[in-house]
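ok new one. same drill as before - structure tokens go in, u give me an amino acid for every spot. 186 of them this time. try not to just spam alanines like last time pls lmao
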């Protein structure tokens, strides 16, 4: 009986100590609003615990989010004093932490987050970027059939309904921000 209890303690400690894949969690900053957006890229349904820790090491906010795959969650730290805050994200896969330098010049520390989620030939495109615009293109067999400049200042999301397109053709969606091109096969 003591052996079983010891094994349970060791296995639960090992699970709790696993690190969550850092590519599943990104933090983006919107300097005009002092808003940090947590972008979580899970692959299935799970409960995600998020905790924000102050520079003094105190939990100032925590919540559980029931995630159906990926989600974006903004956090407004405008009223908080400058300092290094920790955002801890925990799911059944493990835990990861990200440090944000609130109240400092964050503009050059951010990167573009571009995500495409598909369901029944409907594609939800989400862009979080410090840039003001992104070019969105759809190509059919390498030829452009759609092009638009999208405002991304406060984040951008749009659903593209491609049910009427010919399924025998090859389609690609491209997002272009500055010189970065991200392509998705549809």
């Amino acid at each position: 009986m003591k052996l079983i209890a010891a094994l349970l303690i060791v296995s639960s400690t090992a699970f709790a100590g696993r690190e969550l894949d850092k590519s599943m969690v990104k933090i983006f900053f919107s300097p005009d609003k002092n808003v940090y957006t947590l972008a979580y890229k899970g692959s299935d349904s799970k409960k995600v615990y998020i905790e924000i820790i102050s520079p003094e090491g105190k939990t100032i906010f925590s919540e559980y989010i029931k995630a159906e795959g990926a989600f974006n969650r903004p956090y407004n730290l405008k009223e908080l004093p400058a300092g290094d805050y920790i955002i801890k994200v925990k799911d059944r896969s493990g835990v990861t932490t990200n440090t944000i330098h609130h109240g400092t010049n964050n503009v050059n520390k951010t990167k573009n987050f571009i995500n495409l989620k598909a369901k029944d030939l409907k594609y939800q495109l989400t862009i979080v970027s410090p840039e003001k615009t992104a070019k969105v293109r759809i190509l059919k067999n390498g030829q452009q059939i759609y092009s638009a400049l999208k405002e991304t200042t406060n984040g951008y999301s749009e659903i593209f309904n491609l049910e009427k397109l010919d399924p025998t053709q090859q389609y690609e969606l491209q997002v272009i921000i500055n010189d970065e091109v991200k392509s998705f096969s549809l």
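Helices lie at 2-16. and btw DSSP finds one helix and twelve strands in the chain.
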